[in-house]
């Protein structure tokens, strides 16, 4: 697995950070952007995310977007090599917990939490527009 992560880094390809109940979650940063898929906190593709879960994900998104590492991510790395610090990163989060139509609700709630965290620390920050739900 370490060779795989090294290959991703060499080619600037993101390792997906998949939050599932059935697969291990990995948070190695391997590219200039972060790619997250949230598949459900309790039941794969079906369960929603509660307030505590969304607060944790919002803190991770803010850390990643600010060029940092979330404090809880290191324990979920495949390698022990820290990523290069950056001024900022794009973070793409996809909710794929749509069996019970939770994805749009959870996405809106995560956006609100990220916006609050970002505006609390950076008065110049505004959410990117447009935000599109399909």
Report on this structure.
β2 (33-38), α2 (51-65) and β3 (90-95) form a beta-alpha-beta unit. By secondary structure, the protein is α/β, with parallel strands linked by helices. The protein has three helices and three strands; from the N terminus they run αββαβα. The model has no long low-confidence stretch (mean pLDDT 83). The chain has a single domain (2-121), classed as TIM Barrel, CATH 3.20.20.410. The chain has a three-stranded parallel β-sheet with strand order 1-2-3.
Bulk shape: globular
The number of helices is 3
In terms of structural class, how would the helical and strand content be classed? alpha/beta
Average per-residue pLDDT, rounded, comes to: 83
Proportion of residues in extended strands: 5-15%
Q: Using the 3D structure, state the CATH architecture.
A: Alpha-Beta Barrel
Key descriptive features of the protein:
alpha/beta; three-stranded parallel β-sheet; 134 residues; TIM Barrel
Write a concise synopsis of the structure shown.
The chain is of the alpha/beta class and 134 residues long.
């Amino acid at each position: 697995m370490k060779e795989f992560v090294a290959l991703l880094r060499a080619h600037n390809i993101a390792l997906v950070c998949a939050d599932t109940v059935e697969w291990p979650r990995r948070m190695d940063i391997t590219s200039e952007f972060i790619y997250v898929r949230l598949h459900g906190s309790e039941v794969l593709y079906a369960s929603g995310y509660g307030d505590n879960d969304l607060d944790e994900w919002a803190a991770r998104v803010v850390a990643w977007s600010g060029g940092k590492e979330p404090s809880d991510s290191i324990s979920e790395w495949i390698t022990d090599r820290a990523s290069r610090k950056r001024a900022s990163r794009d973070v793409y989060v996809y909710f794929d917990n749509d069996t019970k139509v939770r994805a749009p609700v959870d996405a809106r709630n995560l956006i609100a939490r990220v916006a609050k965290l970002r505006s609390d620390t950076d008065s110049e920050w505004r959410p990117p527009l447009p935000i599109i739900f399909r």
